[in-house]
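pasting Aldo/keto reductase for the record, 277 residues
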Amino acid sequence: MSRNLDPAPLLPLADGAVIPQLGYGLYKVPPADATRLSLEAIEAGYRHLDTAAFYGNEREVGEAVRAAPVPREELFVTSKVWKDDNGYDEALRAFEASMARLGLERLDLLLIHWPVPSTDRFVDTWRALVRLRDEGRVGSIGVANFHAHHLERIIGETGVAPVVNQVELHPWLPQIELRAFDLAHGILTEAWSPLARGRVLADPVLAELAARHGRTPAQIVLRWHVQLGNVVIPKASSPARIRENLDVFDFELRLGDLAEIAALESGERTGRDPDDD
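structre below
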């Protein structure tokens, strides 16, 4: 029988809340599998589930939270307002629909999924999230896929900074300047596609580091994220991989290892540039 793993460390958010540093990402997890795999993750030691309206599995994630063998207050659940619902009233309605699907009384973190600068509605969307936070419906609020200039807009026009910016981030796209901007503004950077959808794992540099540490390439990359201070939400489709991804807190990459990974930067994205919407 596999051992139960310790939950990920808790990182402080600027609003006084905390977030588990490593969570279970549910992008492209089919609804038919989402409850089972979420429960597998919780039983393995995960306390952070990341879903979204766009993922189509909020209902199943909510079922897992209600059936979990741990108290609700120990779990951290994130969802997101999809780009088609940007706008003040639209975001409020989208939030109510998400909560009905989740079946939860309160959400731990709500994000704007994409800024969609072509419609110029993300500031109004942000004002809606601020209202939901102030009303106590949401614990924390943040954004996803925001460049620094998008962040400057919402902070400048509302006076409220997000506590999280969830962006594509992996060794090919380490987002050095954006992470520095986030840090300077009290924003925690969270990595989606942390393994570049698995494509970066074939790199021989990571294979060598994995052999050196007696780990898998995925564990090397996830440990890199952890040591950068990122929140990271890898997806996994099997109990074995779910456990493997969480098992990264009992070893450390050396400075030379980190330098080797830094050299992999190419700027390649697996998803869209947020300015292209």
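The chain has a mean pLDDT of 97.
The chain has one domain: 10-266.
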